[in-house]
Amino acid sequence: MNNNRLILKYCRNFHKIVNFEYYEDDFISEKLINIYRDFIFKVDVKNEDDLKKAVKLDYVVSRYIDDYLFRKNMKTQLLAVRIRKTCDNVLKAIVDSIIHIFVKYQEETTRKIYISKWI
Predict the structure, then answer these.
(1) Is the predicted pLDDT of residue 11 greater than 90, yes or no?
(2) For residues 94 and 81, is the Cβ–Cβ distance under 8 A?
C-alpha cells in the first residue's frame, strides 16, 4: 500500500484541514496548513514516534480550525517561536513547537469544575 494512503488513515482530519478556507491575508493559517501537509507526507510509517507526532499534529490543526480562541492564541504564539540555526530538522522542530503551544493552551484553559450541592 502507498505510504500516503496509510498516513491518511492515521490523519483523519486531512481533508478538512486542506480544504479549510482562510482569508487571503491570513498567512499564518496558510503556512500552518503547508507545514502540516509537508510533515505528514514526510513521516516514516515505521517510526512510531513520528507517527504519533503526525496524529497529534492532525488533531492540533483540526482544533485550530474549529476553535476560534485557540486560533487566535496560536497566531500570537507562533510569532514568538524561535528555531536555532544548528537544528538538524527544522520542520520537526516547528511541529514540536506547535504541539507544545497546544498543550500549554489546554493547560491554561482547562478549568476545575466543582459540583455544588443544592439544599
Answers:
(1) no
(2) yes
What does the radius of gyration of the chain's CA atoms come to, in whole angstroms?
Answer: 16
Band the pLDDT of 101: cuts 50, 70, 90.
very high
Contact, 65 vs 16, CB < 8 A? yes
Q: Name the amino acid, one letter, at 13.
A: N
pLDDT score of 108 more than 50: yes
**CB 13 within 8 Å of CB 58:** yes
Sequence-distant (≥ 6) Cβ neighbours of residue 114 within 8 angstroms: none
43-57 residue pLDDT tens? 888 888 988 999 999
Q: Is the pLDDT of residue 1 over 60?
A: no
Separation between Cα atoms, residue 98 and residue 57, nearest integer Å: 8
Q: Can you tell me whether residue 67 is helix, strand or coil? A: coil
